[in-house]
Structures are given as C-alpha cells and as structure tokens.
Amino acid sequence: MIGTEIGNPVKFILLYLASVLAVTNHPVEINVTLPENATGKLYLVIYDNKDDFLGEKGELNIYDISELQNNPKIKLNAVKEGTYAFVAFIDENNNGKMDKNRLGIPKEPIGFSVSKMGLFGPPSFKKASYQVPNTKNVELIIERF
Asked: Which domains, and CATH codes, for the chain?
C-alpha cells in the first residue's frame, strides 16, 4: 500500500509534465504557392522576434523543389506558443543564399507570411507575423520581382 501511495505523486508529476509539454507544442501547416517552373531549393526561415527578422538567426529548413509537389504543404509538428514570421525563397542557382541586385532587391523568388514584398522593401516583422497556437495554417506566396 505504501509503495502505491508513493508512486502516485511520481505518476502525477510525470503526467503533468507530459501534458504541459504537449500543450506548448502545436502543429502549423504552411501552404506554399510556388511560381511557375520553379527549380532549385526552397529555403523556409522561421523568425520568432523582430530583432532577428530577415537576419541569419532564424530557424532554417531546406527542401528540394524537385521532391515537392506543386504548391506544397509543409507541416511543422512542434511549434511552441509565440509570435512567428515565415519567409521563404527559392535558391534557383543553388549557391546557398538569396541573390540580390545592386539595390538589394531579390533576384530570386521570395515570399513572406501574411504580407507581400512592398514597393519600399519587405514587410516588418509585425506585418508578417502569426500567433501560435491561434494560427494553424499559414499562406505563403513566393513571387519573382
């Protein structure tokens, strides 16, 4: 009897921790619209704060477009609660970076969650961000400029 009573608090703590961990991670599906005849690698970068937005500190995911169906759905299964902006570009020449012209305008297709590239540059983190878990589906349209 005593062993059972001692085991119950341990079980309770383990169940509680499991439920907390399950609650803090959420699935997010990103519906990507690719430009016609897209080739190369699709870089999906996830940013969780405005200071890192469009810098090199985002979480990077790379997909070979030849292995993706047209307009793929990318499933992220364990996104923690928070505010996120998603940016994707297609590295058409496979050099591992987003090529830009002399003015800094992307030469390769790029897309942002929620907002599009503006006349005067990319959207802000605030305009491009989603709240997780409130958002389960993200639309991301990749365009040429």
From this structure: 26-141 (2.60.40)
Residue 130 CA, distance from chain mean position: 10
pLDDT tens digits for the chain (145 residues)? 444 444 555 555 555 555 555 557 888 999 999 988 888 899 999 999 999 888 888 888 888 887 777 788 888 888 889 999 999 999 999 999 999 999 888 999 999 987 677 667 888 899 989 888 887 888 888 998 7
DSSP the chain: -HHHHHHHHHHHHHHHHHHHHHHHEEEEEEEEEPPTT--SEEEEEEE-STTTTTSS-SEEEEEEGGGSPSS-EEEEEEEESEEEEEEEEEETT-SSS--B-TTS-BSS-EEEBSS--BTTBSPPHHHHEEEETT--EEEEE-B--
